[in-house]
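tool_call: predict_structure(chain=1)
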Amino acid sequence: MNKTGFSDEAAIFVRVVERGGFAAAAEGTGLTPSGVSRSVTRLEDRLGVRLLQRTTRRLALTPEGETMLARGRAILAAIEAAEAEVTAARGRPRGLLRVNTGTAFARHRLVPRLAEFRVRYPEVTLELSVNDRRVDLMAEQIDIAIRTGRVDDSSLIARTLETDHRVICASPAYLARRGTPVTPEDLARHDCLVLHGFSRLAEWPFLQGGRVAQRSITPAMTCDSVEVLRDMTLAGLGIVRLAGFLLRDALEEGRLVPLLAAHHVPEPVPITALMPPGRQHLPRVRALLDLLTEGRPTPPGAANAPGG
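tool_result:
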């Protein structure tokens, strides 16, 4: 078996699946759609199985195709990792780096470090996608996805960038108008703002009788953007509980006031970089991750967190 030919055909097959068709897969490769189709056919002939069901409307993976997709991605990741390890010692980080993150982390953590990154690594071209939806790293060819909160995808390589803590707060204007809650029970008489689509974030943990108890919050308003929730809080619309990195400047400047610190359990919030297997060895990937972990800030509320 021609190993080089097999890896090339596997790469084209993975690209076809991830791009959703032969024409899309051909873009930027120098191949024609028919050339891509012939490559997939050669791979099927080599393996003796059908990988794709072709119709006039779409392509569908066969069970064998599902297996080949997983194995093909692993093969490509292993090849890329091997190349990265061999070349890392002799070269500076360079090439295209694709990063995906949510709006809040991009604005408050990533963008402030990008000027320094460009000075250090001018040969790295950054392609940054910013949105608050989950993305398929493989399908969208992402090198690094940065997530705030718990992550569950065990098929990805994870590296913790920092650990933040959630803070309950409101604006001075809101508190002047509605009063300051002294106990968790007081929240029932206040307007609380909650992130939409994450039910566990409507459960706020408090110490009660020496134990942690979850209090269900009935929100006055919800929103699917933490940035907008922050703006709503600054505008005096209610009380919010968000990760501290979103609030630090406003708390330090007195535009927001922390609440219920004696009762609230801040709850660690990991900020994690997720990578397809093999990408963690790429010099350009390591360069950005190392920069983001330099001089980690102390999050608001950390002093009150359980365990220190």
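agent: The first strand starts at residue 52 and ends at 54. Proceeding to next step.
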